[in-house]
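To fix ideas, we reproduce below one chain and its tokenised fold.
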Amino acid sequence: MTAPAEPALPLDIVFNIERLGATPSHVVTRADVATCKAIAEYLGVERVENFHAELALRRWRKHGAVVEGDVGADIVQQCVVTLEPVHTHVSESVNARFLPETTARSGKNKDEEVWIDPLADDPPESFDGRDINLGALILEHLALGIDPYPRAPGAALPESARFLATGPEKRASPFQVLAKLRDKSDT
């Protein structure tokens, strides 16, 4: 049985790392209407407008790269309460490091324990070959900036829905029930 194919990314910006020199390389992209429509479908939102990304790439650790920059777009989503269109502006910073897969794996023994420091920088991403797909990186950062539960200004749940959302009266905990039984037996 074969695994299902991943959907094609609506933004495909492949950068050959061998092009990096002593000075940073800049990648600037603006999406046309058709690409914005494809990005909106990919992200599951109504519309994407004014999409732009500005990235700077520089060499890192001889064979790797650091990607820094900004990604932004105007997003239109449905309000989770009223289903009205909600317009928001998403602006995210990009800061990622990449190392070739062979370099990223070297020095790691698969039998060793892995220690993760939640406050440390993220480990570098690995890439195969000479190319980094900046489109995937841009879409990832744009998706992280989208509000998963957008609300129109002034939108609130009606009282009947609040009752359904919270359920009937709060049930007593088992410890409260036991305390009542103990109090009855004391009398």
